[in-house]
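The data layer described in this paper is built around a simple, fixed record for each protein. Because each token names a local backbone shape, the row as a whole describes the fold. We quote a single record here, exactly as it is kept in our systems:

***
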Amino acid sequence: MQAAPEVLWEVAGQVVVITINRPDRRNAVDNAVCRQLAEAFARFDADPALRVAILTGAGDRAFCAGRDLQEVADDAPRLPLPVLDDTVRVSKPVIAAVNGSAVGGGWIFAQMCDLCIAADTATFSIAEARVGRGLHWTPPLVHMIGSRIALELMITGATIDAARALQIGFVNRVVPAARLREAAFALAEEVVACAPLSVANARAMVRHAINMGATQALEVGRQLSVPLYASEDSREGPRAFRERRKPQWKGR
């Protein structure tokens, strides 16, 4: 796939940066973004050389302003938002690097990613109630930040800053805006340094735990770990520790 105007693709080692590139529209999502973002996630998932994706927005004003309401107002057919583990399947970690405002669909994109790092100038809001839109995508948010905080944000449309987002557990780290890209890559490299099968195992267990009770989640965790403990990487880790060297992960 060639890098397209609406979604940019940049590889650095085992990390790819996927950028929504409509800064003049505050990176609002139209059909072109939906299509190209879905293609980018599929490309990332299919490439064994890539371990982590970073999702961000172009410019410094907005991460993503959600759906392009001009397109919505035209009543034109709309493609579904490319939401991880809903309309798009990805088996590897994705980090949101929130560089500005994340509104509506932008909140969804930050929420769907496995990890989220935000510039200290970033802001977040669920604006759907203010424009008469639905909130069918919010149930995972209740597990993430708790029912009362989630409901307050949903029924007021209030905007919170990055510090508050960190406080309620919506983001993992807040950094100075000028260091966002550097910090996102540093976090990605922390993940890359770990065994691929262990990372996939942890990601799958967390996703399952969100969707079921503790007893069921523990059983699923045990089942997911069986092939991990039988893998070459499972033996490589202790060997590397004993030999005081960096592990050579094979992902099998």
